[in-house]
Amino acid sequence: MDSTLADALVQRLAEWGVDTVFGIPGDQANGIMEALRKARTRVRFVHVRHEEVGALAAVGYAKFTGRLGVCLATAGPGAAHLLNGIIDALCDRVPLLAITGSVHHDLTGLETLQGVSSEKMFDHFTLYNERVMGPAHVQVAVDAACRRALHARGPVHLTVPNDFQSLPMSAGKGSEQNVPGHSRPAHFAPLRVPEQGLLERAAEVLASRRRIVILAGTGARGAGAELSEVADVLGAPVIKALLGKDVFPDEHPLCIGGTGHIATVPSKLAMDEADGLLIVGSTMPFLNWYPKPGQAACVQIDDKPERIGMRTPVDVGLAGDARATLRALLPHLKRNPDRSFLARAQERMQRWWQFVEHQGTRRSSPMKPQVVAWELSGLLADDAIVTGDAGSVAYWINRCIRLREGQRFSLSGTNCTMGSGLSYAIGAQCAFPDRQVVAFVGDGAAAMVLGDLATLRQHALPVKIVVLRNNSVVLERWEQLSFLGHKEFGNELSPLDYCKAAEACGIAAVRIDDAARCRDALAEALGRAEPVLVECVVDPNEPALETPLVGHHAENYGKALEKGTAEAPQIVRALLESLKDEQRFIPEAIDAPTAELIGKLERMRS
Ligand SMILES: Cc1ncc(C[n+]2csc(CCOP(=O)(O)OP(=O)(O)O)c2C)c(N)n1
Ligand SMILES: [Mg+2]
């Protein structure tokens, strides 16, 4: 039988190496579903419960494999549901192909059922966005879309009108201008290295500095060994943006952790004291966590030249591949003879880990969220893939999870969308059926994508979902209090039994509410070969604190508590305990406004 346009589409995707498509069928896309049915032994269709989860799963798949992620939806509402994943791919620079069906070609623009144009809807957020115009167009359009997504690292979109999907390929006579076979399914990734003169200038700039820090982001992936060597030569501690948490092990002696709101104290202090900054593959968005403009000479390596100088003034920009550029730079670098800056950062980091361990091994009731993160960290397999989510969980992941070489981590970074944890985990487990995949998420985020617990059962994906249950979207509480000095409002979640929900979706569940039992219960869940949801009942009053606390945020906490925000007495106790821990282990984190807050909290408590 003659193959259809949709068959040719799926066949071409397979030639591009696509083996998985995440999505939901719909009448405007069912011609493509038929092609996927026929090709099901080569291309797996993963039926999710919400197209947004499908798009985010495809982003997760792409992030963890480095390959193209693909999602599919019907026209109108299905397409609209994909949008958040498309934006996620745009923000985190991930190759994603979104395929939608659209209304019959001769009903376009006529307000027919689901007739909203997905091309117009996606236009602002895609790097390539086209309608397939017939059989002679399908292969070249797929090639152009895949090339653009992989080369520019971002989302692209193809829509196929309903009736075109089932057209026999033989029906499509190309135009006289089109030469059949002029395009092949191939992409050639360049390896860019800056010219020698620039490398020399960069080395010169760094040679005059004695207190250099390195900021590594996801763009430094694959350059861990080179980062380590450069850091050693420069006597520079390595700080990581959250998306780059897994590019350099937390265990590495030169690593001093994350930055931004979730910074470690040693990393914030090192940024404050630095006279040199080497940025490798990062555009970490929190400007207050960079050295102040004029404070430090800066060299930035990024393979996207337009991102150089985006966040902080740059003295020398090196547009190139991170690994190749670091390799080329190394012979030009002079060893920094002054090791005192590094030694100070490392000594602080030792005390930081003592602080984290102390907070992660408390046995108080209700259980502290740090306990779950700390115990989980110790139990992760050597090649575990951890996915995270927007919420206080991002603080605990960054702080308490000590990633080792070979382990992977991601969450929705710049888009920072709730729901990425479970969605990315679906993508990761499809790509790596034999690796341990753990989604570490808040209860608000879990509630947003609850239906997709059923996807784990349906596709036999043994993901472990660790849910921090605090019956609240609690990060918003801390933001309302500390960013604005307001009473909290609108954050509570009516209690939801996540174990029952999981069981209703056909997956096993366990509840942990006792810190002393946490490690064993987590270990038992992680050891099972099936999907398991672990509901961890944690203290909603444990503040997700910036460390060190930003001065005016300390003042705002005081104001909000004096106004009598809900549960103020419990918050006072928890906040005081956390700040006192910090004071005990790393007293240099406590500046005047924070010391004043501590005094105020002590008076409120008594
Ligand atoms: C889709 C989306 N909606 C809203 C937000 C704003 N937001 C960021 S974190 C957060 C709280 C998340 O709550 P939960 O998952 O329960 O985590 P918790 O902070 O309680 O640990 C919210 C509402 C967001 N980032 N994404
Ligand atoms: Mg919550």
Characterise the protein shown here:
The chain is of the alpha/beta class and 606 residues long. It folds into four domains: 5-171, Rossmann fold; 196-347, 3-Layer(aba) Sandwich (Rossmann fold); 361-544, Thiamin diphosphate (ThDP)-binding fold, Pyr/PP domains (Rossmann fold); 546-606, no CATH class. 43% of the residues lie in helices and 14% in strands. It contains 23 helices and 18 strands. The strands form three sheets. Strands 2-1-3-4-6-5 form a six-stranded parallel beta sheet, with helices on both faces. It is globular, with a radius of gyration of 25 Å. The termini are far apart. The protein binds thiamine diphosphate and magnesium ion. Magnesium ion (MG) is lined by residues 442-444, 470, 472-474.
